[in-house]
Design brief:
six-stranded antiparallel sheet; binds calcium ion
């Protein structure tokens, strides 16, 4: 009975709605009106910068891709991603000392599918001035020492990333050089312990270089604390000592190389009350992400590097709701938190990098769907747009700054479809931008 009653009320409410005096106007039509009020009438030829992009195709047999997730062909990485400058010895020293003198540090999370791993330090090599010797007593089951000691790093092998345990090629024996990981994960890091023959993904910490020293600011480091358990032969173990210096690596997000990706800037105003929009509501920073296309083993991907989330709405890339990636979640913050759009305040987070499988013919960033709730955000030729596409060196707006006043020629572009490179001429000062 209750269910029937409920349906009846809903039907009544909908019926009364369609009989309202004001004619039904779609959200897109309302948006067109407020957009043109701000930026003027839209030239029918404007395509908002979206064009077909290069698709990087990788050989199935591994000319470019050696093994799943790890790409050992270092000379080719730079064709599509920016390879980080290697650490200097001085930088490695400063990181080593920090990990050796800060017990039980509080770590952070990052969310990258594509990244570099670079060796920093193998434990036990240099322990002067260190609070840990990186050697350990082997304990019996009752916690009394067996009298034997072990250098932890000598038993740490097979560095892996993510819960799928992707091996970082050539990172063994707590040593390595540099490796590019793709379609992998930073949701955990671990090693194989060769004494007790077990994998450990619960004995690492991820630290921002900002916390360590200005010489390594903006970088990220993963440190491991050695542990071991061996039950099948006399029940022995090594307890971690809370110094994560037994193996230290740097991880760096794999940003697309210049010219190899395009940047999309998104405006979510359409999901607001469109009767009360003001000039400073137009910031086109509610999501800012770069798109690069790859074909790996005959599957096409859009590789997304998410730089900013300058809104507080549920905004997804790649699909609606659970079918897409929610931007705040990707950046490891609550939906109410704006990320990387307010200088010197608010929340600053490392980028998020993730892959979206796409159909074989998809090579235009405009075909990567973006939703606010269930509302798709469109960029249609000659229509008011909710996103535009620019080169990856174009800076995005801070919150509450006016697009119209900052990008000097944007209004000209809307009206005339020229200049196409309107984003190069800015009238606003540098404080209008996040970067
Ligand atoms: Ca340790
Ligand atoms: Ca906005
Ligand atoms: Ca915003």
């Amino acid at each position: 009975m209750k269910k029937i009653l409920f349906v009846g009320i809903t039907a009544l409410a909908m019926a009364s709605c369609t009989h309202d005096d004001y004619a039904p106007v779609s959200k897109q039509e309302q948006y067109q009106a407020v957009f043109e009020k701000e930026f003027g009438a839209v030239n029918p030829n404007v395509n908002w910068g979206f064009t077909p992009q290069q698709v990087f195709t990788f050989d199935k047999d591994g000319k470019l891709i050696g093994t799943r997730a790890a790409n050992p062909n270092s000379n080719q990485w730079a064709d599509y991603v920016t390879v980080p400058t290697k650490l200097t010895d001085a930088q490695k020293e400063v990181v080593r000392k920090w990990f050796q003198n800060n017990p039980n540090p509080k770590g952070l999370e990052v969310n990258w599918s594509d990244f570099f791993v670079e060796q920093v330090y193998k434990g036990g090599k240099k322990t002067e001035g260190s609070k840990t010797l990186e050697t350990y007593d082997i304990l019996k089951e009752d916690d009394t020492p067996t009298g034997s000691k072990v250098t932890g790093s000598n038993q740490m092998d097979w560095l892996f990333c993510g819960s799928k345990k992707d091996h970082v090629n050539n990172f063994n024996g707590a040593d390595g050089d540099i490796m590019y990981m793709y379609d992998s994960s930073t949701d955990c890091f671990g090693f194989h312990e060769s004494y007790g023959q077990k994998y450990y993904d619960d004995s690492y910490v991820l630290i921002s270089g900002d916390q360590i020293d200005p010489s390594v600011a903006g970088m990220y480091f993963v440190g491991f604390d050695y542990k071991m358990q061996k039950y099948d032969n006399g029940n022995i173990e090594v307890r971690p000592d809370e110094y994560y210096s037994d193996w230290i690596v740097r991880i760096a997000p794999a940003l697309s190389a210049p010219g190899k990706a395009m940047r999309v800037m998104v405006e979510d105003i359409i999901d607001s009350n469109l009767t009360s929009v003001t000039s400073s509501d137009w910031d086109f920073n509610d999501a800012v992400f770069d798109v690069r296309f790859e074909n790996v083993n005959n599957q096409n991907y859009a590789v997304i590097t998410l730089h900013a989330a300058g809104g507080t709405k549920y905004l997804t890339i790649g699909g609606e709701g659970d079918k897409g990636v929610e931007v705040h979640k990707a950046l490891c913050v609550e939906q109410s938190t704006m990320v990387n759009t307010v200088k010197d305040q608010g929340v600053t987070r490392p980028v998020a990098i993730f892959r979206i499988p796409v159909a074989a013919n998809v090579n235009n960033a405009n075909d990567i769907p973006v939703y606010v709730g269930s509302q798709i955000l469109e960029a249609k030729k000659g229509k008011a747009t909710q996103k535009f596409c620019v080169p990856t060196d174009v800076r995005w707006m801070q919150e509450r700054k006016q697009v119209r006043k900052t990008y000097n020629e944007f209004k000209d572009y809307v009206r005339d479809d020229a200049p196409k490179d309107w984003y190069k001429t800015v009238k606003g000062d540098k404080n209008d931008f996040r970067y």
